[in-house]
Design brief:
Blueprint: E1 2-3, E2 6-7, E3 21-22, E4 31-32, H1 37-54, E5 68-72, E6 79-85, E7 91-96, E8 102-107, E9 113-116, E10 123-129, E11 135-140, E12 149-153, E13 159-162, E14 170-171, E15 184-185, E16 191-196, E17 202-207, E18 213-216, E19 223-229, E20 235-240, E21 247-251, E22 257-259, E23 272-275, E24 281-286, E25 293-298, E26 304-307, E27 312-320, E28 326-332, E29 337-342, E30 348-351, E31 359-364, E32 370-375, E33 381-387
Antiparallel strand pairs: 1-4, 2-3, 5-33, 6-7, 7-8, 8-9, 10-11, 11-12, 12-13, 14-16, 15-16, 16-17, 17-18, 19-20, 20-21, 21-22, 23-24, 24-25, 25-26, 27-28, 28-29, 29-30, 31-32, 32-33
Amino acid sequence: MIAIGSWATDAPAQVSISAPCALPSSGAIIGFAPGSPTARKLILQRTIRCLQARGALTASGAPDKGDHFVTFDPPGSFFTVPSGITLDGRITGYFGDASGVQHGFLRTPSGTFVIFDPPGSVRTLPTDLDPAGEITGAYCDTASCAPQHGFVRDAAGAFVTFNAPGTSASIEAPIWNTGGPPPSINLQGTIAGTYSDAHLTEHGFILSKSGALTTIDAPNALSTEVLAINPSGVVVGDLCNSTHCGIGFVRTPDGSFNTINTPGASCGGSIATGVNPAGAIVGMTYDSSCTTPLAYLRSPDGKITTFAIPGALTFAPQAINLTGLITGWFYDAAGLFHAFLRSPNGMVTTIDVPGSFGTLGLGINSAGVIIGIYLDAGGAYHGFARSPGGANRLGLTLTTP
């Protein structure tokens, strides 16, 4: 769920909220918690109604500001989360049905949906897809989801599944992950991600096209998270050492590690969330006082540029494309989530699905098409894709909530 408020009671969702609600303070990291799809929707509904009752939340997004929005839900969806998009506009992700079961989906550029689940799955979480149409992610075959398994679905719909090494080890693909979509798949079909062992220690991994799995542990790290891989095999993520967690790193294909030294790295804040084909890395950090959240861009030669999002209390860059466009989301003082787009010249554009009550950017392809979720007035969340400058690269006409 998206934790954007708190309540004094544990009462069920209601139209009017009498108990006070509290918004996150400046610099707070928006957290995420487990729960059934029904529970998450109720919490979102309570959040929105609470904020509306305070007068702190109104619909955002001007009518089509020259951008082309397509909103979508697979048939029977209770909530929709897109997680990956190709250059030609194929989108994968997951959705929950009315009975609380999560399934994977593939949306074609023409707007048709293919619904899928690995054999035996009771919960499917596709996280990324490559240009050839191979989709990767995680799934559960027991109600407890212990452990989670990995999968690859090829363009013809055939599945190959894989497991983390060791008894009770689990491939990690959370309901929500602010640092990109593990597992991540590149152009060559190599998969990178994170697994937790029987002691709940995190390790990175790379799975080759042939099925060989290699564990990745950063030097002197107590835990290692791998969050993204580019076509050259450059892997990024973050680690915990004896002093801090959230220290970003980059691993080159020869196995060399380099930590990412931003102004806020000494605070434990330099998580690398995305890497593009050229090796440019985007991530989250703080200023040198460890109080102000910032984003950073690390160029292929190692140069660090930090930037802020105007009006943001907290924010998270999620992805960077081939041309250096960065997308993500931020949270403002009015209680709204917004997507953003940062261009290579540093200009930041706020993006809101027209009529929505919150918009979050999650991914971007090389054509600049952004995917993400938006919230409606009832607290449900839906998928969207936004083409820049009014261009329709998705095969559909404009739709709005």
